[in-house]
Amino acid sequence: MDRSVQPLTTWPQRHQGMRRPHALVIAGTVAAGLPLLLAVFAIAGLLVQAPGGSLTEALGALSSDAYLWRVARFTVLQAGLSAIISVALAVPVALALSGLLADGVTRRWLLVLFAVPLALPQIVTVIGITAVWGEQGAITQTASAIGVDLPSIYGLTGILMAHVFFNMPLAARLILGALDTVPGEYHRLADQLGLSGFSRFRIVTLPVIRRSAGEALALVFMLCVTSFAVVLTLGGGPRATTLEVALYQALAFDFDLARAVLLTFVQLGLTLMVVAAIGLSGGDAAAGDTTGLFRPVRARRSHTSRLSFGSLVLVLATLYVAAPIAAIVLKGIGSVSADLVVRADVRDALATSLAIAFASASLAVVAATVLAMAAAEQAAGRQFRGKPGFAEQMALLVPSLILVVPAMVIAAGWFIGLRAFEMQASAAPFIIVAVNAAMAMPFAARLVAPTLRASAERTDRLVRSLGVSGWDRWRLVTWPALRPSALAAFAFAMALSLGDLGVVALFGSTDLVTLPLLILRSMGSYRSSDAAALSFLLALLTMALSFLAIRLARHDRDGAAS
Amino acid sequence: MFRPTTLFATSTILGLVHVTLAFGQTPTLTVYTYESFAAEWGPGPQVEKAFETQCACDLKFIAVADGVALLNRLRLEAGRTDADIVLGLDTNLTTEAAATGYFAPHETELSALAIPGGWDDPTFVPFDFGFFAVVYDSEVVTDVPSSMEAFLAGDPSVKIAIQDPRTSTPGLGLMLWLKALYGDEAPAAYEKLAQRVLTVTPGWSEAYGLFTNGEVPMVLSYTTSPAYHRIAEGSDRYKAAEFSEGHYMQVEVAGMTTKGAENPLARQFLDFVVSPAFQDIIPETNWMLPSAATSKPLNPVFGELVQPKKAIALAPAEIAANRREWIDEWIAAFSR
Amino acid sequence: MTAAPAVVLEAVSFAFGGGAAPFTFDCRFEPGTITAVMGASGSGKSTLAALIAGFEIPDSGRVLIGNTDFTGTAPASRPVSMLFQEHNLFAHLDAFTNVALGVSPTARIDAAQRDAVIGAFDDVGLSGKEHRLPGALSGGERQRVALARALVRDRPVLVLDEAFDGLGPAQRADMLDQVAALQQARNLTVIMATHEPADARRIAARMVFLADRSIAASGTVNSVLASDNPSVRAYLGSA
User: Which residues of chain A have a CB within 8 Å of the CB of C181?
Assistant: First the structure.
């Protein structure tokens, strides 16, 4: 054999240190800081304008305010229950989606369906939910026709039902993201060991989802803490009042900026306490011993019971999510007319919504990726051994806190700040994009982080031994692994931004009308059929975008497997 | 793939910004108003056209969510506002709005006004008004109450959706209506009302959406609401119940800011607001009653609406002074 | 042909975190020689390999390769190629790209380098399988791809960490012979962690025997395997 190949590379004599790329850690810190900065600046804006001494005064009033503490208690109660129920139901749904129908048609369509609750304005979905479960709802009426009287949904029940509708799909998506990183070897091993049912769940699945389920719990809690329209509309009366209502009273009716800031801190403090209690310490599932080469191959016959249980879970979850959407679609589809679609304000709103959503989702996914890469780098720095450091643990938590800073506070604070420089009109689009991106980033980060971490764990040694770094590492190693998750995160972030109207509505610029805002305006002027038609279009748009993202991700995966 | 996307989006947004900056030669009048007024189908576009033909100027609307948001916009701007005119506050807010010092006296000739009970506010000019009413679905509700008393004592299984006085103008209106009728006995009335309430929504849209969707057969709205369904949808299914005690009145007003006092167009606009050219537009776009004479009779449908025997209204100063305490009372009664 | 360097671990001490007992290594791997590193599970074979390759950094002591101190140098900057038992390939990149990464960490290569990569596939007997994904290759074939990459990387030290443990006897013998031939042709210093005495006998000249996180015996393969060091005897299962 001829071994006289000329040396292709000469090994470097120069000493290169073991330094980990600090640039990434700095970029990660910046990404984590973006949402924080948005919130801090807004709160500072409010405080600057609050009259001197009003803060201490408001603090004094706060401590003796029985109404407020009752409201705070109810806020935590409803958000806590909503989060627990949403995640408890999301776990079997995610399991069914990952196990039974991996890459199947059903999985794709369900993920498309699951994006819709994120994008529709809450008022529209609340009415959709009452069309199914309300006093005159389809299910209530059907049940009563066969002699079963379902209890009224107005009260805590209705709040929880709506919050589950909004958040179960979201939690399922996040948990599914983590489940997708479970190496095929684990399933193969579990099949070989004959693990089934609960023991399989406990040994193979639980360690992987414990972390993501904990994170989903915290995120859903945060989303429900700020729930306002849902809580009031389905809560039935003033007993069901959240801190956001008190905040609205303080900011809108009393224009008490100091009290608004303090209530924001109360909301943040309560959330931090609960999140700490949830304990994001969840286990670090090691992918290190695996190649990720194998896809699960299940012997279907031996899992018939799982199959039927999984199918049942999926059917019920699908019906639960699909029914209110179907009510909205049915109402909207008949109201869509050619006149509506070509109306100038509808076209403008569509363009504005898409532009804001594209920009926000891009920013959110880029920031989330940088953040998750920095966290993965930290994990690699400790060789994926031992406990994650403080920075690594905080990396995903800190940016999430933006979710419990009320949109009203952000909009008002930034308005005051920008007003000082006469920039409130020109900067509004950028603030709206930044806030939407910041709100979507926690979700995007949780979709890309498990993938990046698993990829880093599998390839870190190899890339270090080969010296593949920087752009080449991104191009050759990170991006191919990340792409499906990044696309999913992008679709997710887009749906969230499409539906958001918190900040858009409050900035009040005639030139920035989004589709949800147009829906709200229509509803506010008796034009319920326009609103129904536009809701249908928005749902359709969301599904189309999600479908596209899933198709792109799938195309990539097929390409890699061929 | 992200780069082109971001570029596209950014340029689109820059395009939008460009639009906002692309005016400037002709004199401009900036009017802050609420969204449904400025909407494509609202009075805004017609008002803009009508005023621009007589002023050779550019009328620019900046819209925020509602009347409460309007006042807050001014407060957030702390006197350095772009607005010459603020259009869309109501009598629940005028005392607080005047107290901010951001408004100048209107000095407008108001002899054409046709507001029940007259008008003597030196700062604000009323541009329309309406009466709150229980609106019902005539296909479901057969026993229509003829008074507030009868309504409160009615069948608790026939429900109404009302709005929260903490977050909504009609919600506040209903509370004031009961306060005006029952005074210190109002809490007992709230408790009776609570028996008939399906849910309390944060705004008018949620409650009315539940109503038109068939979820609840009654809703707190306006005597003029049925006019929309008659005229725009050709349906007389939804009707307002006339209450013998009278109906609580909401008056919507426009005011000139201290900045607007420097702009001759602002004064011209206030004159325009009480002129037939403006008033003709109101009934069938804002679905409220004109505050002053119109040039032609209203659509006959308006004549067939409930015409309250008595217009009830508490003085704005009294509302401002007691609102907080009354809301606490309302919450207590509803939480029982 | 580059001169083979000696690899020296000079009073190296290393401990995993959490108060674990430290590994202490003080030994020399002769240049241009195949040295087998043997010992029971947990004795420190993989740790020793990782210290040489640069995946772990000693708490104290030095790692010298050819008289140059590489103690704190990044893995890619060391004159070392390493073959792991698993994870030698990127699962989403085809075999060719995986090998090309050994020539250039950007995987962008010119025509001459391309020929060299093709030549390396030929050398390890994988001609025609360049464009398969790792998932479509057998375990032995995957290790050959990794060996082809080590060929094109052309580093004077080759560390094998139980690299052929997953293979059947015939494949295993074949791979060992390839390593031996490669060592001869390139004058490499080869350090081979294994738990199989037959592997050592087949191709190694020297052996370092590990027990309890440090070096228990060293010398020629035969002298170590025949020594009456109790750890060696216990490992071989003969008194």
Answer: 1, 3
C53/A4 CB distance under 8 A? no
**pLDDT tens, per residue, chain B with 336 residues:** 333 333 333 333 433 333 444 444 689 999 999 888 988 889 999 999 999 999 989 999 988 878 888 888 888 888 888 899 999 999 988 998 999 999 999 989 898 899 998 998 999 999 999 999 999 999 999 999 999 999 999 999 999 999 999 888 899 999 999 999 999 999 999 999 999 999 999 889 999 999 999 999 999 999 999 999 999 999 999 999 999 999 999 999 999 999 999 999 999 999 999 999 999 999 999 999 999 999 999 999 999 999 999 999 999 999 989 988 999 999 999 887
Rounded to two decimals, the ipTM of the complex is 0.86
What tokens were used for B115? 């507001």
C181, two tokens? 């031939």
Q: E strand or H helix at C191, and its extent?
A: strand C189-193
Q: Please indicate whether, in this complex, the C-beta atoms of A12 and C77 are within 8 angstroms of each other.
A: yes
Distances (CA, A) of A472 to A450, A468, A485, B69, C104: 21, 6, 20, 52, 10
The residue type found at A390 is: F
CA distance A228 to chain C (A): 46
Closest Cα in chain C, distance from residue A371 (Å): 23
Is C108 buried (19+), middle (13-18) or exposed (0-12) by CB count in 10 A?
Answer: exposed
Q: How far is CA B47 from CA A273, B258, C29, in A?
A: 53, 23, 92
Strands (E) located in chain B: 28-34, 58-64, 85-90, 103-104, 124-137, 160-163, 197-201, 218-222, 238-241, 247-257, 289-290, 311-312
Residues linked to residue C82 through DSSP beta bridges, in sequence order? C159
Report the length, in residues, of chain C: 239
For the entire predicted model, the pTM comes to: 0.81
Helix axes A304-333, A66-99, angle to 10 degrees: 120
**Helices in B142-275 by DSSP H: which ranges?**
148-152, 169-182, 186-196, 204-212, 225-233, 264-273
Which residues in A140-162 are b (16+ Cβ under 10 Å) and which e? beeeeeeeeeeebbbbbebbbbb
User: Alpha-carbon Rg of chain B, whole angstroms?
Assistant: 21
